[in-house]
Amino acid sequence: MYDFEYHRPGSLSEAVSAHRGAGDAAYLAGGMTLIPTLKQRLAQPSDLVDLGALRDLAGIRSEGGAIVIGAMTRHAAVAASADVRKAIPALADLAGQIGDRQVRNRGTLGGSVANSDPAADYPAAVVALGASVRTDRREIAGDDFFKGLFETALEPGELIREIVFPIPERAAYRKFPHPASRFAVAGVFVADFGGGRVRVGVTGAGPCAFRQAAMEQALAARLDPAALDAVVIDDSRFNSDLAASAAFRAQLVRTMAKRAVAGLTAA
């Protein structure tokens, strides 16, 4: 681990100011990815801006037809929230599947979304639910947020404050987890908003989370697992590694999507 300056601001404005005034700063949320990266000397920020004291960035509330979750809200809090379980039970279920208890009690929603790990769980929900990412500067549509491998629409120094999740009529998330990390080798979140409006978010398969338009069209016509049998899945840009080949991931996407649809139709 290289030397760095450590900051623990007490407010959002102080955090943004500390980041702006540093040479090459990084925000520290739960540290699930950043700390191991620093230990392996794969990153060398000049400053670390610890967000742990910013209580205003944590919390869960209802807002119109949506659930709003602060960026520093821990995964365990999302999984246990009565409000989330009532409004979007699939989102609470997703949070409860992340990593292990230690990870769920340290990792944060904002940190996971900002990192855009290709196998993270939350990004599938962000795109499937049509969520909005509110930062210290603006509001970004979930469909426009994930750009590529560990790449998002966030500008340098931009900080996520909270994420707004519209409430669907029903939803379900299913994933094939890596046996060690519990990351998604492939995961699919299906959200039914009624009136033939179905959104499908996929994680683990490609460089970042994405919507599966062909599946959405098939399910809009017939909300049934069998409707996905004829969908053609292009795996040309899918990940291929020791966990799974691109072709196997394509099969997993179909299987997890069918299980998700079966789960929401049974709700």
How would you describe this structure to a colleague?
The chain is of the alpha+beta class and 267 residues long. It folds into three domains: 5-47; 57-166, Uridine Diphospho-n-acetylenolpyruvylglucosamine Reductase, domain 3, CATH 3.30.465.10; 170-265, 2-Layer Sandwich (Enolase-like, domain 1), CATH 3.30.390. The chain has eleven helices and 14 strands. The chain has helices at residues 12-20, 34-39, 75-80, 82-87, 89-96, 101-106, 109-115, 122-128, 142-145, 213-221, 246-265, and strands at residues 5-7, 25-28, 47-50, 60-63, 66-70, 132-135, 139-141, 146-148, 151-152, 160-166, 170-177, 184-192, 198-203, 210-211. The strands form four sheets. The chain has a five-stranded antiparallel beta sheet with strand order 4-5-10-6-7. Helix 2 (34-39) links the parallel strand 2 (25-28) and strand 3. The longest helix is centred in the C-terminal third of the chain and has 20 residues, at 246-265. The model has no long low-confidence stretch (mean pLDDT 96).
List keywords for this structure.
alpha+beta, four-stranded antiparallel beta sheet, Enolase-like, domain 1, 3 domains, five-stranded antiparallel beta sheet, 24% strand, Uridine Diphospho-n-acetylenolpyruvylglucosamine Reductase, domain 3, 267 residues
